[in-house]
Write a structure and sequence with these properties.
By secondary structure, the chain is α+β, with helices and mostly antiparallel strands. It has seven helices and eleven strands.
């Protein structure tokens, strides 16, 4: 789909991929080849213009300057691989379920089994306590515990998330919005001068924020953003983590958040996207 293709291009450029493998998708292979070929040609043109400008500057300054030519980024190599028999594409429902499971794993960790030593120690402790009881108490404890053995859960979660309650007044929320102009709307050979991603401040917190996944900004990124006012200083920096909105209490002006670790948040600047999660 269109959104998935844009995300794929963004991931390839952000990670500076030099090899991209396309499995059994001729249309995607053609689209990627066309995109990166055009991108490399634009970079080469910009590099030539920069070199000519540098040459003119050096000539006007009496010589002695060093000619520089900005080289464009290396075009990623797109390789098409055949699809094995029986392979099917993941539909929207499957991808949505997979994303939900990944979010749950982020807060709760993987499902693990308790260690054998811990289970044995718990069983021995309960058995010893049962034997120390006299008469009917011992019989009752034995029957209630199945003969003095402990009831140990078979599986547990690796992590324990924590709940946080933060007043509305302490939070600064930014909504990520996209302002991207099509090439047909721009003059020939012109590029969009504005940042394609804009930050829209959220002044009024409403119950519609419930179940949203929020990104917690790094304090250093917040400091740079406050100085420059450039949105990219905030959203292009790595985030400190993510929190989930459990409840929006309008009567107390409190936002209940689910955090993967205890303690206060690194910063109270949060980015709001379109991802929601409800366990």
């Amino acid at each position: 789909d269109d959104t998935g293709y844009k995300l794929l291009l963004h991931a390839a450029e952000a990670l500076r991929c030099n090899v991209i493998l396309v499995v059994g998708h001729d249309r995607l292979y053609s689209m990627l080849n066309t995109y990166f070929t055009k991108k490399a040609a634009e970079k080469d043109t910009e590099g030539d213009d920069s070199a000519m400008s540098m040459e003119d500057t050096n000539d006007g300054g009496g010589g002695g300057g060093v000619r520089k030519k900005e080289k464009g980024k290396i075009k990623p190599k797109v390789i098409k691989l055949p699809r094995s028999g029986g392979v099917v594409s993941r539909d929207v429902t499957f991808r949505r379920m997979s994303r939900s499971q990944c979010i749950k794993r982020y807060f709760n960790g993987d499902v693990i089994t308790p260690s054998t030593n811990a289970s044995a120690n718990a069983a021995m402790t309960l058995s010893a306590n049962s034997d120390s009881l006299a008469g009917n108490n011992a019989a009752s404890a034995s029957s209630a515990t199945g003969g003095g053995t402990a009831s140990i859960p078979s599986i547990v979660h690796q992590y324990t998330p924590f709940a946080l309650e933060i007043p509305f007044a302490d939070l600064t929320l930014h909504k990520l919005t996209s302002v991207s102009l099509a090439a047909s709307m721009l003059p020939v050979s012109a590029k969009q001068s504005t940042d394609p991603v804009q930050l829209l401040p959220i002044h009024d917190i409403t119950p519609t924020l419930k179940h949203a996944i929020l990104a917690v900004c790094h304090p250093s990124a917040v400091q740079n953003y406050n100085v420059s006012g450039t949105a990219s200083d905030l959203y292009l920096s790595g985030v400190a983590g993510f929190v989930a909105v459990e409840n929006v209490d309008m009567s107390r002006d409190i936002l209940s958040l689910l955090s993967p670790c205890s303690g206060s948040l690194p910063s109270f600047h949060l980015l709001v996207g379109d991802i929601t999660w409800m366990e």
